[in-house]
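WARN no homologs supplied; continuing
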Amino acid sequence: MAKCAVCGKGAHFGNNVSHSHKKTNRMWKSNIKRVRCKVNGVPKRLYVCTQCLKSNKVERR
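OK structure emitted
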């Protein structure tokens, strides 16, 4: 679910690195919003990242 319908951006994975340089897993989640957009002239609800909304890649209702 946490994936942009426009650009496909999703979660990213990496490591937390402590002061002692011990590594544990962590995850960065993309800023995904559920918005109403026009798709082929029909309003639909899509999950879109905020960068796609900001750059007007999506026509909002």
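The chain is about 10% helix and 45% strand.
OK
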